[in-house]
Amino acid sequence: MGVAKAWRFSLTPAAAKLALLHNGYNNGEKQVLSLKSSATATTATTITKTTSSLSQRKQTVSWSWSLVCGLMLFGLGLISLFTGHVASDLEWYSQRLVKNTLYYSKLNGNGREAIDVWKSKYSKFYYGCSQRGPRYAPAVKERASNGYLLIATSGGLNQQRTGITDAVVVARILNATLVVPELDHHSYWKDDSDFIHIFDVDWFMSYLAKDVTIVRRVPEKVMRNMDKPPYTMRVPRKSEPEYYIEQVLPILLRRRVVQLTKFDYRLSSNLDDELQKLRCRVNYHALKFTKSIHELGQKLVMRMRRMEKRFIAVHLRFEPDMLAFSGCYYGGGDKERYEFAEIRKRWATLPDLNAEEERKRGKCPLTPHEVGLMLRALGFANDTYLYVASGEIYGGDETLRPLRELFPNFYTKEMLANEELKPFLPFSSRLAAIDYIVSDESDVFVTNNNGNMAKILAGRRRYMGHKRTIRPNAKRLSALFMARDQMDWDTFAKKVKSCQKGFMGDPDEMKPGRGEFHEFPETCVCEKPFKDIAKSNDGNLLTAGKTKSTYSVENPGEKARHMSMKRKIGKDRISVGDNEDDEIFAD
């Protein structure tokens, strides 16, 4: 059909031109003969023969060109027939090769056209993949295990979440029975919530039953038969699996029960693929919030959506503890310096920091005003709806006022749920869980530091379809904000867009050695096969931007189908600080 269309389209005009050309020569011949009719018979005969000969030659040339054109068009028809089947394939693969520009995609009459800041056009090429491999060994039964592993987590909600995730992996490495982890009751937030108050413990145990045997507590019989209390130890930060096998396993076999304390970031970021996928199954599937937390979080999402179809969630992280930990200064004079110095005393090993140098290094969180300026410069309009996920903002309403002026449609959990929020108010971790849900469901998530909630949610949003996650390039933006009074708005906006290239949550930002696995879970992010993308474009299968229901991790055949397309970015990772106090600040 493609060939036939090509012939019809191309030969019809060509034949018309040839016929017109042929008629032109014949008319010319008749005119010559009529004008020369009074000439002698010999001359007329000569002219007649000559013109006849020329006409024949031209006819021959015309038909020769017709044949050549026909052959060329036949070849083009074959090419069009072939490319008709593979054009979309070529288009898809070309998307993978083209170095896309995050903000400017094509030229038009007025200059460069900005891309959609709400969603990456490349997100539809990826999906979350954390299914078990065909050779994955089943979980060791409780009686056959090497002992019981107790875990005491540390920090706020999301820091503890990393500890719980890694605890399951460590139990798998040790062939141990994991006891439901104990949450931190003695940190800065003084939250006495237990695991069962925040997470659905039954779901947690059942979902991971094929990976690790989990029990609520060490059996009474085992405890009675122990000569000594459980052995307590703290492992170094970022320990390799070999460390647990060589240092922890012998003690576990000898004592039967071992407790690991302050368990946060105690496992290397670089593990083999099966263990990394186990991390993803724990973090993105097994750790489900309790019904009360989940329902309230979803209510807030629905209330935001009723007001506006799309909204941004901003994790300001401008609380006193975070600012004190950063060592930065925000112009509050001696009062601010004293307050931050008092808070810093809780971290005994924190060095004295130069506030100006820390800002130049990009270690200082942006102020709420600076976050607002960045978003407006990126192209978010004044009528955009903002959900602000935060605890106590340093400076209170006065600090938030410039952000409210830039984005009047400004909401928090306290504004959206007044009476419904009261049962959760005494518990900082439960409040953080509500912010987590709304931030996860938002169309765009904006972080303001590289803390635990920022990392965990950035990784989850990549796994769930690369939903837009904006991370300020604080190192470059800080200098720009200091000089913003020296330039007009258009120049400032252009420079902000330039600064933010590579910090917008696009798939190509997942590069070897970049950050923690919890933030960049590259092992668990795969490229979709072309056939699925083609169906997605037709609206028959997956569509870009969907989250939980989009990706199935239960089908054991998924790995075989997607292995050839899997995006393997690289295994070597750069550790982000090995100081004992690193990451202990608030979520």
Number of E strands: 14
The overall pLDDT average reads 78
Return Rg in Å. 34 Å
- According to CATH, the fold-level topology of the domain at 291-318 and 365-506 is Rossmann fold
Can you tell me the CATH class of the domain at 291-318 and 365-506?
A: Alpha Beta
Gross morphology: globular
What fraction of residues sit in β-strands? 5-15%
Q: Which CATH architecture of the domain at 291-318 and 365-506 would you pick?
A: 3-Layer(aba) Sandwich
Q: Sheet bearing the most strands, described? A: 5 strands, parallel
Arrangement of strands in the largest sheet: 6-5-4-8-7
Low-confidence stretches: 1-55, 80-113, 539-586
Sheet/helix structural class:
alpha/beta
**Total number of helices:** 21
Terminal CA distance reads 62 Å
Q: Into which percent range does the helicity of residues fall?
A: 40-55%
Would you spell out the secondary-structure blueprint of this structure?
Elements: H1 2-35, H2 41-97, E1 104-108, E2 111-114, E3 126-128, E4 148-151, H3 157-174, E5 177-179, H4 195-198, H5 201-207, E6 214-215, H6 220-224, E7 231-233, H7 241-255, E8 257-260, H8 273-286, H9 291-307, E9 311-315, H10 320-326, H11 333-344, H12 355-360, H13 368-378, E10 385-389, H14 396-406, E11 410-411, H15 413-416, H16 428-441, E12 444-446, H17 452-463, E13 469-470, H18 474-482, H19 489-499, E14 525-527, H20 530-537, H21 558-562
Parallel strand pairs: 4-5, 4-8, 5-6, 7-8, 9-10, 9-12, 10-11, 12-13
Antiparallel strand pairs: 1-2, 3-14
Helix pairs in contact: 1-2, 3-8, 9-16, 10-11, 13-14, 13-19
